[in-house]
Amino acid sequence: MLSNGPANPPTPSDRRLDLAADALRFCLQRRNLRRTSRIALIVGLVLTAINQGSVIASGHATAMTWLRCALNFVVPLIVSNAGLLSGRARPSGDGATPGPRAAGSIPALSGREPESE
Predict the structure, then answer these.
(1) Do 110 and 104 meet the contact criterion of CB atoms below 8 Å apart?
(2) Which of 7, 29, 56, 98 has a CA that sits 20 to 30 A from residue 48's CA?
(3) Can you tell me the distance from the alpha carbon of 82 to that of 74, in angstroms, rounded to the nearest whole number?
(4) Backbone angles phi, psi at 28, to 5 degrees
C-alpha cells in the first residue's frame, strides 16, 4: 500500500478529490443543508408555478414536465451551495487564492473597531 509521505506527494488529482470531498462535507452539514434546501424549496416552487403551472393544472403533464419540475428544485440547490462555498474562507498556504474573509473578521461588518498594530 502506498502512503502519501515525502516520497509520494499528493497528485493534483488527489488534491482535487480532497477539495471536492471537503466541499461536499461542508455542504452536507446540517446547518448548511437546512439553509440551502429551504432556498431550493421556495425557488423551486416559484419556478414550477411560473414555468409548468398551467400544464400541470390542465392535466397535460408528461414525464418531461415532471423532469423539468425536478430540475426547478435541483438547480437552486446547486446554486445556493455554490454560493455557500464561494463565501467560505479557504485555508492559506494551499497555493490557491484565499477566499473572502468571514463577515466577523471584517471590522466594518462585525461592529468591532479595527485592531491597531
Answers:
(1) yes
(2) 29
(3) 12
(4) -90, 0
